[in-house]
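Next comes this protein:
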Amino acid sequence: MKKINSVQDLAIKDKAPAFSEPLHVGRPNIGNRESFLDRVNEIFDNRWFSNNGPMVQQFEEEIAKHLGVKHCIAMCNGTIALEIAIRALGLTGEVIVPSYTFVATAHALQWQEITPVFADIDPVTHSLDPDSVRQMITPRTSGIIGVHIWGQPCNIEGLQVVADEHGLQLMFDAAHAFSCSHEGQMIGNFGRCEVFSFHATKFFNSFEGGAIATNDDDLAKQIRLMKNFGFAGYDNVIYSGTNGKMTEICAAMGLTSLESIDDFMQVNKRNYLAYKKGIAEISGLSLLVNEGEDRRNHQYIVMEVDSNFPLTRDEVIQVLLAENILARRYFWPGCHNMEPYRSFYPHAGLLLTQTQTISNRVIVMPTGTTMSLDNIKAILTILQLLSQIENTGLVKELLAV
């Protein structure tokens, strides 16, 4: 690893990068390979690759047990899980969502000709603000989708109050919050249902996959029907369903990941605490606090660049990328600034002031089991050097590439 003692040593000044290999925000975690390969051999021996095989059944049972929910329905990915959950709840017309989320949350509605209506966020937690939600309700509103962003529960109670007041369905996009808890209860138990993603970039992955968790027996039955073309037994189709099934190989990876989940979370917390300590010493930067008595997966390191930092957020990213530090602008610029929503709602930003501010300040930093404490120390050294720049002319010179 290259030593950096001054801004003149930075890669953006035509020097070698600090890291020879890219450092990713979400490089896949890998559990015990032998355990996974044993499961693969079992799949081959069974010659059962899909269609609710024994691995998927075990995976659903283990996830339901881990979350303390009655039902877990495994899916091929989190987006299909969102679409099926939305359809199973009978959502129509308009559904209120945050703009500050991955665009799949909005797309899952738009694909079903349901209008996503964007509400603003709390600037401290970055999650959906119940007061803003209340202001966006119209006679066409049928539901609310809260998002547990960064592995922290959103304002569950506040959103439930709004939903109850107006007779709306409430579900949660819990793609960031697997194995997290709220008030001692695991995420997966709130609203009508909660949707998880097990994509490779998540700290807990099944290569590709997702799941819907619910304690509603009738809803679970409907979701199982919908994810398998509407089949209710051999040759008996009773609903116009789709194909949302998880494969056996993905379930095998999920089961293997579940065996190592505590190890993954321990490393994530170690990295979070290292970043927290270092960033606290750097003027103009702050770390989103992700602590408390409840269980947290710490899979995201979320840093905000304040206006008094010498470089803008995008300039900081420019410097980091040159060092092979692949920091990201999650979830810039907000769904309302992406198509087709930008064309549908050209003035949405006027009602999304906190969303606009936060999306222009956030940097998500590399973490996970492939990150060492030495890597984090080197990143913090670079950020500390940048914070000490006092000459604006030096900033311009630094970025003149």
